[in-house]
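Collaborator request, handled under Task 6.
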Amino acid sequence: MLHEFVIYEKRTGRITGHFRTSTPDLLPNPSSPELAFAPVTEESQVELLRTLDRSHRLAGSVLSDKVNALKLEPRHQGKLVLSCDARDLDQDGRAELPADGASRTRLEVRLVTADGRPIQEGAPVVSFAVTRGTLSSRTAKAQDGIATVELTSAAETVSTLVSAQAEGFEASSLSLEFLPVQEFKVLSQAGSGKA
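Structure tokens returned to the collaborator:
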């Protein structure tokens, strides 16, 4: 019979890994003095560990040497990088569109590895959400590592948060501003050198 154990951080109780052994009385030494082991004794948690595969990672916590919470979370094969073609006219870190209910910007999501290299294989569906404005589509299938939709501005002067997510990828978001039309024109002219 195999016995399941989790590895956890003593200070925080955060589970960092697990192992199986046939002899629970003979355990290895933790790889660091900050780590400890706790047995997994609840049958539902043991079953959960048996379903653990390479596409998931173990998450949870230990409290008073007892496994308090245990769950599987998907491993991210990469991350999404969300950008738009609207300009940041006032240099505040957020691109702007006129609040006219008609202006558009192209939203682009690039699929990249955790260290930023492009991922071009596969074609995940990227889901988009926005707090203000209108999307041309709520989903887009990635082609050559890129998914795009368009955002049409709202007819109100507000900020909007755009988010993108896809299964197996770390989500991404960006903020834009819908400015009063006259203010947008003044900023556009100042940015282009026109008076």
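The cover message to the collaborator said: "The mean pLDDT is 90. Residues 95 and 176 are 5 Å apart (CA to CA). Please let us know whether this matches your experimental observations."
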